[in-house]
Design a protein that fits this description.
The protein has 2 domains: 59 residues, no CATH class; 31 residues, no CATH class. The chain is 49% helix and 15% strand. The radius of gyration is 24 Å and the shape is elongated. It comes from marine sediment metagenome.
Amino acid sequence: MKRTIKDWLIVLVLLLDEAAALVLVLLVLSFFNIRIPLWVTVVIALLLGGFAFMTHKVIIPSFHKKRVTGSEGMIGCEGTVIKPLTPFGVIRIEGEYWKAKSVD
């Protein structure tokens, strides 16, 4: 799946809350006169930012996933029969239970 600039901008916006949390922690520490060396701050910021970025990177494919709404969006999908279709029964599609009718 091709990633677009819009996708990456969305991920960067999602990372803003992590950056805000880091700034808040640094402000609280400076308020209590707790000094952390700059190199430690940079390393922690890079590690947390990298972890958050990789976590959000997993989200990008969901931006392009076809939205399924209602029973009309389920036509043609395959599911697992939970209650035999004689001719009505229950099936499970993508973790949801649906009433179904056999066409044969």
